[in-house]
């Protein structure tokens, strides 16, 4: 204990009073650190941090632009798809209408042709009938004239008169025939 | 070298051998010069201070000299430390705009103090440089001078004193008392406490570690071995504790420095 007190007395330097050599060394050491950091290394890292910040923000902007573009493309695509759908629907509608029109037209054409054929048939029949009637009339006239000539024994010379008489007779026959014919024709038409 | 100054490990001094406990004390912070140039004695704390300086510069050189936008491992660690001081301390106290100017100083102080503290638990070195008052005092002096300079630059001579002494007419009768207290507090006591807070923490920490380290060795005899084990465990625990305290003290030192600068720049109230 005595020794300790003695030592303390010998080295009575207060630990709170800074020794000058250490103070100088400490300041020099700190100055070295400060100069290296402040003049070279921290400006260096600040520059890099700034670059990085810009790079990240630039990347984000790029990503945003890409996303916007993708969105745009998607919208365009959807619009096109909707257009295409409308177009398809329209075409289908049109085709249906055209088909229906075509069928109707064909039907009308068929109808027309049928009626034409029927009409032609009727006309032919009428012509044949007329011709037959004509022939018949002539034959009947001739036969009747022959017959009458034979019966009367003389030829009826007045042709005009003869023909008129025959015609009148035949017209009467015709009338009769057509009257009876109307009833039977209506029956056949059914 | 007196017997008390001998390191416990260099002796065969154990309990029950008729040898007194070689307690650590003030003498533990005195070092024989490693060499002398003229009248200048170069000792261990100076050597550690310079080695620490080299270590800091080397680390930040390796991390930041060829900094890349995509950082390597070392750069990442450096950036984390840099950002911790810049955002966590300087921007917090001074704001981004005002504070930017003081970032290099504060970063330098933080890492300087921290590494000088860290020597305390680095094997072989095992001495906190900051437990020599000269080192914290130098740093505190730099901050004090900066604080004074900024105060008078910002507010002028009269305004500067008003800022320092908290002069405010609305205080009325107690104004003189406030002025005197603030003057002593800010101008005389504050730089002292700024330095001593760091010094005393490291000084006490080193004493604690010495106590249990020497104790472990001293008790290593007979039944004392059991107690030596307990003392050794304490050494380990306190080493971990010191690791924490070293960082905290560096943080506090810079935090206070930032607050002083902020006070100098603030409008007086």
UniProtKB/TrEMBL annotation, chain A:
Its membrane topology: Single-pass membrane protein
Top-level division of the source organism's lineage: Bacteria
Location in or out of the cell: Cell membrane; Endomembrane system
Coiled-coil region(s): 46-101
InterPro entries referenced in this protein's UniProt entry, alphabetically: ATP_synth_b/b'su_bac/chlpt, ATP_synth_F0_bsu_bac, ATP_synthase_B_chain
Self-association and partners: F-type ATPases have 2 components, F(1) - the catalytic core - and F(0) - the membrane proton channel. F(1) has five subunits: alpha(3), beta(3), gamma(1), delta(1), epsilon(1). F(0) has three main subunits: a(1), b(2) and c(10-14). The alpha and beta chains form an alternating ring which encloses part of the gamma chain. F(1) is attached to F(0) by a central stalk formed by the gamma and epsilon chains, while a peripheral stalk is formed by the delta and b chains.
Family under the similarity heading: Belongs to the ATPase B chain family.
PANTHER family cross-referenced by the UniProt entry: ATP SYNTHASE SUBUNIT B, ATP SYNTHASE SUBUNIT B', CHLOROPLASTIC
Record's function text: F(1)F(0) ATP synthase produces ATP from ADP in the presence of a proton or sodium gradient. F-type ATPases consist of two structural domains, F(1) containing the extramembraneous catalytic core and F(0) containing the membrane proton channel, linked together by a central stalk and a peripheral stalk. During catalysis, ATP synthesis in the catalytic domain of F(1) is coupled via a rotary mechanism of the central stalk subunits to proton translocation.
HAMAP family, sorted: ATP_synth_b_bprime
Name of this protein: ATP synthase subunit b
Organism whose genome encodes this protein: Streptomyces niphimycinicus
Gene of this entry: atpF
From TrEMBL, chain B:
Compartments where located: Cell membrane; Membrane
Task of the protein: Key component of the proton channel; it plays a direct role in the translocation of protons across the membrane.
Bilayer-spanning residue ranges: 46-65, 102-122, 128-150, 171-192, 198-220, 232-257
NCBIfam families hit by this protein: ATP_synt_6_or_A (TIGR01131)
Lineage: Bacteria, Bacillati, Actinomycetota, Actinomycetes, Kitasatosporales
Protein name: ATP synthase subunit a
Classification via CDD domains: ATP-synt_Fo_a_6
HAMAP family named in the record: ATP_synth_a_bact
Gene encoding the protein: atpB
Source organism per UniProt: Streptomyces niphimycinicus
């Amino acid at each position: 204990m005595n020794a300790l007190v003695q030592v303390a007395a010998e080295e009575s330097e207060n630990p709170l009073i800074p020794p000058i050599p250490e103070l100088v060394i400490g300041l020099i050491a700190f100055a070295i650190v400060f100069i290296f950091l402040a003049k070279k290394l921290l400006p260096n890292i600040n520059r890099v941090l700034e670059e990085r910040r810009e790079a990240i923000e630039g990347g984000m902007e790029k990503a945003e632009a890409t996303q916007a573009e993708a969105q745009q493309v998607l919208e365009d695509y959807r619009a096109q798809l909707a257009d295409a759908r409308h177009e398809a629907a329209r075409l289908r509608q049109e085709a249906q209408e055209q088909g229906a029109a075509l069928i109707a037209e064909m039907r009308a054409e068929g109808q027309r042709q049928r009626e034409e054929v029927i009409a032609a048939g009727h006309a032919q029949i009428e012509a044949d009938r007329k011709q037959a009637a004509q022939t018949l009339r002539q034959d009947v006239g001739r036969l009747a004239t022959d017959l009458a000539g034979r019966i009367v024994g003389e030829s009826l010379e007045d042709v005009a008169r003869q023909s008129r008489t025959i015609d009148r007779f035949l017209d009467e026959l015709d009338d009769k025939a057509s009257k009876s014919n109307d009833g039977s024709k209506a029956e056949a038409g059914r | 070298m007196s017997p008390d100054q001998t390191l416990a490990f260099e002796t065969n001094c154990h309990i029950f051998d008729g040898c007194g406990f070689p307690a650590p004390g003030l003498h533990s912070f005195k070092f024989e010069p490693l060499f002398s140039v003229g009248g200048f004695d170069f000792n261990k704390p100076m050597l550690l201070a310079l080695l620490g300086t080299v270590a800091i510069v080397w680390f930040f050189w390796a991390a930041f000299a060829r900094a890349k936008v995509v950082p390597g491992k070392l750069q990442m660690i450096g950036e984390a430390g840099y950002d911790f001081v810049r955002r966590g301390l300087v921007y917090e106290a001074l704001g981004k705009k005002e504070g930017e100017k003081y970032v290099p100083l504060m970063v330098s102080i933080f890492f300087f103090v921290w590494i000088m503290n860290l020597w305390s638990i680095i094997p072989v070195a095992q001495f906190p440089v900051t437990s020599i008052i000269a080192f914290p005092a130098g740093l505190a002096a730099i901050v004090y001078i900066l604080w004074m300079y900024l105060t008078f630059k910002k507010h002028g001579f009269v305004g500067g004193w008003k800022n320092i002494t908290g002069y405010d007419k609305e205080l009325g009768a107690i104004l003189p008392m406030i002025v005197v207290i603030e003057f002593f507090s800010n101008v005389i006591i504050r730089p002292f406490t700024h330095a001593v807070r760091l010094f005393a923490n490291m000084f006490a920490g080193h004493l604690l570690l010495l106590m249990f380290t020497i104790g472990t060795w001293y008790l290593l005899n007979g039944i004392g071995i059991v107690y030596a084990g307990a003392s050794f465990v304490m050494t380990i625990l306190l080493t971990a504790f010191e690791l924490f305290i070293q960082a905290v003290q560096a943080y506090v030192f810079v935090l206070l420095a930032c607050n002083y600068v902020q006070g100098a720049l603030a409008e007086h109230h």
